[in-house]
Amino acid sequence: MKDLKDAGHLLRLAAVFVAVFLIFLLARGSFVPKSFGRYGHFRGDALAEIASRPIAYAGHQACENCHGDVVEVKSQGKHKGVNCESCHGPQAAHADDPASVQPAKLDTTSLCPRCHTANAAKPKNFPQVSPEDHSGGQPCDTCHKPHSPAIEQAEAKP
Amino acid sequence: MSMTRRHFILLTAAAATAWESILAGTPETSPNYNAYDHWWGMLINIEECIGCGSCVRACQQENKVPDGYFRTWVERYHVADWTVESPAVDSPDGGKNGFPELKDPNGKNFFVPKLCNHCANSPCTQVCPVGATFDSPDGVVLIDSKYCLGCRYCIQACPYGCRFLNPDTHTAEKCTLCYHRITKGLTTACCENCPTGARQLVDFKNPRDPVHEFLKTHSVQVLKPYMATKAKVYYYGLDGSVR
Amino acid sequence: MHVPVEGFMYPNEVELQWSVLIVLYPFITGLVAGAFILASLERVFRVEAVKPTYRLALLTALAFLIVAPLPLQLHLGRPERSFEMYLTPHRSSAMAMFGFVYLWYLMGVLVVEIWLEYRRDIVEWAQSRTGVSRWLYKALTLGSYNVSERALQIDDRVGWIITIIGIPSAFLLHGYVGFIFGSVKANPWWSTPLMPVVFLFSAMVSGIAVVMLLYMLTCRLRRRPIDMRCVDTIAMYLFYTFLIDFTLEMVDLIHRIYEADESFRSLDFMVHTKLYFSQIMLQIGLGTITPLVLLAITQLMWLPETVRKFVYSVAGVLTMVGIFAMRWNVVIGGQLFSKSFLGYTTYKMGFVTREGLLPAIILSLLPFVILYVLVRVLPPWEEAAPLQSAAAESELAQGSV
User: Fold this and answer.
1) Quick check: A28 contacting C, CB < 8 Å?
2) How many domains does chain A have?
């Protein structure tokens, strides 16, 4: 057709566009990650990758497997709901290899005030003191056993 | 209505029992974990939070959170009398090292721990241009840091301010609900380390999870309900002044 | 980097996420859309008076469009992954549409329209030029040298259709940017259905202004008389478009003040303190009211030609400043206040950093450099000689052709 002859340049332009589009489709096929779309609009492998990140806190269950005696003492006292690593820090490494990784000895002077320093915003029935007034700088475990902190005898050291 | 000590102990005991059963059902390795059997959320009891910051520290340790950024943080509210619409709020370093004493303790003061709400209708996944942030089949909003472009649209879209750009990887980051822990039957680092049990991980699809009983007997709220994000972090005892 | 915070902000909110580069991006695409709309005035709406600016407007749009993705690339945390938007676009995300809208507008509209407009000249230059430029023009012909009457008629018809399609495409190119902000329910400064409309009209204003300024400037540089009928007409369109833009922004403002919702107190305070200079003085005062008054004067009373040229130039420059300030106030302003409505932060703009002021300045000047090259390769004016190879130019100089 005469028109087609005069529109030849447009066909060339269209051909360039189609070629680029086909190259794009090919590239897309090879670059989109294979697991994409498996569960939704995301890379399916990401779930497993995120789930396999390293663990730092072993969880109280792991502690209880070996330290049953401490658990016994703790479950009788006020710190019953306080998990081990809350004070002892992340111990997954210790739980995996107890012999070679030892938890550090804790300093109660700095540890206990983190929860028990008096603050007007804390719930009224929560045990809280001003550390200087209460113990005059002495470490808390002078009088309190951390695993069962209540003091039974009245004649505890001041 | 406050939670009595008895309720709290019962809840902890019930939670412990629940965890026993979860642990029994899902051994250490993730391959036995079926995402479609779970629907994760969190229950936070404002009346129990003492603002110690243990959760913030624990999260940072567990997830290698860079300094100055927070996957979870604690805010302190001071509401003087009836001025509910203008509380004084502070969060020094996210509450990581606790809080200094209040200058003016008169009025109502309390702590509010915050984290990603793992919204079932999350605005952040809606705006991600490439699908780098997504909703997992078990209801956890996650970020694929190998795919994220760092465009920060998700950070803008989150109404709760829980996202940030990791300065080392230059990709978006936020709370993952310790996905690497909960898929192995452990609880999140923040819940594990909360000394008062104010934070509790919940699995709504688990019929024996104590959250079901709790929801039947207590009033709960979510943050910014008018945003209609279907947030899955429920707060018990949330005051109207909380932003 | 310690950022001073007033009041309370959520800990992760203190650092701004979107920098001056994200202010620049809508400004640039706005110029593209506006310049194209001006070009379409002649092509589709048969406004004869603005014909002298037709080709210039198209080249201006192309120059800015080429630069448009650069601020985005610089801003991305992982620019090497930006192609992912083409591989796995998330259909619910307005930002994902960027790649496709941009590509469509660049290739399907602008490049095709420019090619069709210049094709006859390209064919002629491919046959008459020598040296490297000859090969450039030969490549641009795509191998077809048909410039018969019928072929040119077809070009004209197709070009007209492309322009018709191009108008909503230009709206989409810039409107979706407004939607990116307007659809964020978490941010009350951004979240409004008016946002795409306001963005679009301010884009048209800035685009018309930049073409008007460039036309007057290039006439000056070429020592040619300025077609006053053309410039008067452009100024008239600028005035009325600006009136609509101003009305829309005022409607939004009045609405906010009247409804005074939860966010209002915090935003109001921010506008009166942190955004006082950029919003009240620059955007509204100097950048909107002043050019509107200046243009109104030229519309209402007759002024001699030299005065009009001066007034148009001043109004044009102030308009550009005002529209840039508007983008700044939207993008930066939207991140200065806390979503708790209890505090404010500060924007610390670096200078020689990846997202600092220096890259922003360079990216603002780059389109003019590109435009200069485009004007040499595809001259919009009859009397200018197209690109010569260095050898041919020296031959001419020695008079030995």
Assistant:
1) yes
2) 3
